[in-house]
Amino acid sequence: MVSRQRLRQTLSASASAGLATLVALLQGACARWAADRPSPGPPLPREAIEAQARATFEAAVLVKPRESSSADALATGLAPLLFCEATEGANGGAGVAPQVVFYRAGAAVWGGRAFPQMTYLWRGGDGPGAALRGVRVTLDSRGLPGIWEVLDGAAGERARVVFVGELIEQRARAALGGPLPGRRFAVETDPTASPETVVARVLDDGPALMGPEVYINASGRITGVTCRCMPPQVRRLLAMRWYELQPLPANDAQAALLMARWPEVTATLRLPPDF
Q: How far apart are CA 90 and CA 87, in angstroms?
């Protein structure tokens, strides 16, 4: 029979080993997160971000979500239209057009309320190690899209590019005043509070629940986002393709690191009380 003292010693040793394993896992995850974090650098090129957000592609391929009975209703309703830039040697935009877009539902908290969110991610290249990119849509108090974030897992990407709806910007100006020094829009916080966050553009508010138009350049980078109610920033549409909308796997470590890279969007904007 095992004595109580030995049993306590065995359990203590097992607990210590388990704690050491947990600490090692957390240290590894933190090291990967720290390596992935945007490193400090020179001031953000705001003008360049704004210019590319308004740039028009000479030619593009439109990639739309394929109808799926298995996809979440909100995920389907907010699914983005992807305009993939087509250039010489770019295989008609096929090189950057994703075949699968993953989605995950979430929520942003503001003023004690939870606002539904939907995140869409795709791989910006071939293979499981390719950078994850995508957009996250946050609904406002009307239940319509009000904030669109660009998510980019590429190495060296440090700017957090955000687009907001016109109504939110108007309400922010009415409740909080005009833009703060060093900022262009009223919804932007003080530059020292969230220096990596840039509101690239204020978008028209859509009349109903609809997904955004997302612009992907020939290298796979997201350059802009617009409402579907706005004219497409494309001169020539060469072709149309479809992507499969699938739930984001719960164990996707790369996606977890990407979404943990930035704090909650409501904490990095100067939102009005009636957001």
A: 5
3-state secondary structure of 13: helix
- Locus of tokens 């997160």: 33
CB atoms within 10 A of CB 119: 22
Which two tokens mark 122? 């795709």
- Same domain, residue pair 8 and 119: no
CA atoms of 77 and 15, how far apart (whole Å): 48
Distance between first and last Cα of the chain: 66
Q: Specify whether 100 is located in the same domain as 223.
A: yes
Are 248 and 103 in contact by the 8 Å Cβ rule? The answer is yes
Which residue ranges in the chain fall short of pLDDT 50? 1-44, 90
Among 103, 93, 82, 36, residue whose Cα is nearest residue 222? 82
Segments forming the whole domain that contains residue 112 = 45-267
> Are residues 235 and 109 part of one domain?
yes
Contact, 233 vs 60, CB < 8 A? Answer: no
- Residues 6 or more apart whose Cβ sits within 8 Å of residue 47: none
Rounded to two decimals, the pTM is 0.81
Phi, psi of 185 (to 5 degrees): -120, 155
Which tokens in the block code for residue 48?
A: 């360049």
Closest CA to 162 of 131, 132, 185, 193: 185
Quick one: 107 and 192 in the same domain? yes
- pLDDT for res 37: 42
